[in-house]
Write a structure and sequence with these properties.
Glycosyltransferase family 2 protein; single chain; two-stranded antiparallel sheet; nine-stranded mixed beta sheet; Nucleotide-diphossugar_trans; alpha/beta; 13 strands
């Protein structure tokens, strides 16, 4: 499978044997997850109301992300989210106070840190069980902005309907790491209202994609190109969570694995490299809450120590110009909304 898609649609052809391997691995890992399941403690900071059927809930984890928080909430409200469900991982920059000022945000805390909660997976599973199984959720981080075909005119319930019409219970969406061009930042010409007005660019051709028995894998992007990282970029930010679902060993390949080959794709604009990226990298290195004791952040820190900046731009950097551009370039798919609207 090539990414971005040269024909505008993913080639997810898999043999019968491949499907059997997926089913067997799902059975094996699900048994392990059920056996080892632990209810991780989370506590709400104020009264929590139950979801109603018409609600569109979004679950996210955050830590010291006040710089993005206002744009994040506004973006997802525009997509149709009616309830934000957040675990705040001991923020100290005003994030928690900002969250508590929003009436549609449920703020939770935990006595353990992000790393101890299996990089937040245990928190998310616990919240899904509290708010209810057998429904659609948006599942992202506070620096991840989901886009999909016609997303500013077709709200998330329309997307859920389109997925259901195809018999799908997930939508795939690779993370496109967004970054600024240092020349533009130096000129001071950027007026920032949305994060993509600062971090305007993404890689056009630096991705490696494969089909595995557990789902789609996409790696590369600017971090792979610049640091030889093999971070997994695929996520399933729109997910129907029921009793069969677990995150297993990775948030990038949730159980059951057979659902991880959908034909409808969006994209996640990932703002790891935003206006405050130096402070975020420094904090990640010191906190060691990320994969392998934040090893990949240490690589970034080394460059910052030597050069003072990280320049991700190259000759195939693409300036972001909206969701339709991503469809035209093969980064996500068109969606047939008509059959259920």
């Amino acid at each position: 499978m090539n990414y971005p898609f040269p024909s505008g649609a993913p080639d997810l052809a898999r043999s019968f044997v491949d499907r059997l391997r997926t089913a067997y691995d799902t059975l094996r890992v699900t048994r392990r997850e059920r056996r080892n399941r632990a209810d991780v403690a989370v506590q709400p900071l104020r009264e929590i109301k139950s979801l109603v059927p018409a609600d569109v809930p979004l679950v996210f984890v955050t830590h010291n992300d006040v710089a993005l928080l206002g744009a994040f909430i506004q973006h997802y409200r525009q997509l149709g989210v009616t309830r934000f469900i957040c675990v705040d991982d001991v923020s100290t920059d005003g994030t928690r106070e900002a969250l508590l000022s929003e009436p549609d945000v449920d703020v939770w805390t935990s006595p353990i840190r992000y790393g101890q909660a299996r990089r937040g997976r245990n928190w998310r599973e616990r919240l899904f069980s509290i708010y209810g199984l057998g429904r659609w959720y948006v599942n992202v981080d506070s620096d991840e902005f989901l886009v999909y075909d016609d997303c500013f005119k077709r709200s998330l319930p329309s997307l859920f309907n389109a997925l259901e019409a195809r018999g799908l219970k997930r939508m795939a969406a690779p993370m496109l790491d967004m970054y600024p061009k240092l020349s533009e930042v130096a000129e001071g010409s950027l007026s920032v209202d949305r994060p993509w007005q600062f971090s305007r660019y993404f890689d056009g051709d630096s991705y490696l994609s494969t089909l595995t028995k557990r789902g789609i894998s996409i790696k590369g992007g600017p971090r792979g190109r610049k640091f030889s990282e093999r971070n997994e970029l695929i996520k399933y930010p729109v997910i129907f969570w029921d009793e069969a679902c677990f995150f297993g060993s990775s948030p990038h390949q949730p159980l059951p694995y057979g659902r991880n080959f959908p034909s409808i794709w969006g994209a996640i604009l990932h703002f790891k490299f935003y206006t405050n990226y130096k402070a975020k990298i420094t904090e990640a290195v010191e906190g060691k809450q990320h994969y392998n004791a934040s090893e990949h952040y240490q690589k970034m820190m080394d460059i910052l120590d030597r050069e003072g900046e990280i320049d991700f731009s190259y000759d195939q950097s693409i300036r972001y110009d909206g969701p339709q551009q991503l469809i035209e370039r093969g980064f996500m798919t068109k969606i047939d909304f008509a059959s259920r609207d």
